[in-house]
Write a structure and sequence with these properties.
The chain is of the alpha/beta class. Helices cover 46% and strands 12% of the residues. The protein contains 16 helices and 8 strands.
Amino acid sequence: MTIFVPMKDTEKQNKAFCSTNASQYALVELHLHVDGSLTADDVILLAKEEGVDIPSSREELSNMLICPDHCEDLNRYLHCFILPIAVMQQTSTIAYGVESLVRRLDEQRLLYAELRFAPQQHMEKGLSQEAVVKAAIAGLHKGLAECQNGFRANLIVSCMRGKGNEEQNKETVRLAAKYLGDGICGTDLAGSEARYPTELFRSLFAYAKSMEVPFTIHAGEAAGVESMRHAIEFGARRIGHGIRSYADAEMKQMLKDNDVCLTLCPSSNLQTKALQGVTSYQEYPLGAFFDDGVSINISSDNMTVSNTSLHRELEHCFSAGIITPQQAALTVESAINHSFLSEREKEELRRRINMN
């Protein structure tokens, strides 16, 4: 990867790089939800097939899909997923949702992404989790076959925080193990972190370890560093968000000691009020992680809900003066190193990026 020498004047540096070079670092996306990234056009098409009523007004529809400026917290943010999930309840609509996202990421010239979704949220019309997973894999393969720019991707199947779904979560992990290497690369834990603490899922991730399924866990977003501590103890190789650890020296040391990467999503974190008092990109504490040598990757989380993309996230960071080109390059290296690819596949991805 080309490493640029920054100019001495920070303001000039950021102006120079924010609009012209962000795209060269927007290459690997590790934290991206399929349902939160359906476009309005996707929803219109899939709602017709699913028989779901949607507003006739494009503006009203967008208001249902995009996080409002006045979003109070993560729970309000999660309301934006209700409609996208409702229009992906058949094998055809699930497959199309994945396929559409893959094609759009290829158009954005990304090289690799790990796309996550929760199979148990797509069973309202009687599908089994396995049928959902197979449909998503079919959509992935179809989308990849249509890619014109060499984009590659895998799927992460997410378990859900909640009560009474222990067997469903275990089934998600079992399916991750069954289809590992065939479109599936790992599992995850998503949902309302504050209501359902990470500690409750210890046995679930012990099962994932026994099945040799790589996993990431959403933590340190709506709850504190104790949530992250449990995720690391369970064996998570990445933590989704983890932003609340920025001022915790002990947790940052724990992240380094265990070689755990944080997938940080600035726009999403600002919208969900993940950090009290932090309301702008300029205040977003990326530097606290760079300064202490914590591995981080910048991701978009939900392209539609957060009205963003990986390119846009990096542009925000450059414009705000919270990242340098060298640091941006480090985030790409961290993404490759902590992806759920094999070592051979990682090396091939590094080779492609060096040629990019």
